[in-house]
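It is worth pausing here to work through a concrete case rather than discussing structure prediction in the abstract. The textbook approach is simple: state the sequence, then state the predicted structure, then interpret. We follow exactly that order.
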Amino acid sequence: MEVAVVNINGKETGRKVKLNDSIFGIEPNDHAIYLDTKQFLANRRQGTAKSKERGEIAGSTRKIKRQKGTGTARAGSIKNPLFRGGGRVFGPRPRFYGFKLNKKVKQLARKSALSYKASTNNIIVLEDFSFEAPQTKEMVKMGNNLNIANKKSLFVISEQNKNIYLSSRNVQGVEVITAGELSTYEIMKASTLVLVESAVDVLQATFEN
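Step two, the predicted structure:
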């Protein structure tokens, strides 16, 4: 498929970029998208939740009451989980929530996410641009020109650009990422995918390899 290249003013440049059908035009695999998104979110979890169990509670081990004749259940320690302030039974422990996912599944997931965006015409190809200095108002102006001001948009650039990143940092709903860092989660979270022209070649070369 071919997509017209626009400039930062939202006007067509007269050029078109061919998007590879093997990347942007496949039959999406929803389960692959689910698995890749699940792994991405799982890897971000801190996994530091911890509660004290019976053996970790500070307290006396003295038998708190006689065993028989009280009419209630036996109790051998104040650290019993049944008592207020006692240890927790099977409480959370620090752990790693991530899991392994095959590279081919991850690649299929990203291709499926890109194909979804392409099929719904939510991909914009923007000619290469840069800012001489961080300019938030210029980023806002560009969003208005591209009609994505009130949408969650993801700008995909070919390489790190500090001025573009700093210009977008305070703009609500706008994120900037390099083509090499692009993930299924970021693609699906965005309403509109804005591909800088040079990033298209990087992206397509990544999947061809």
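Step three, interpretation. The mean pLDDT is 91. Residues 68 and 106 are 63 Å apart (CA to CA).
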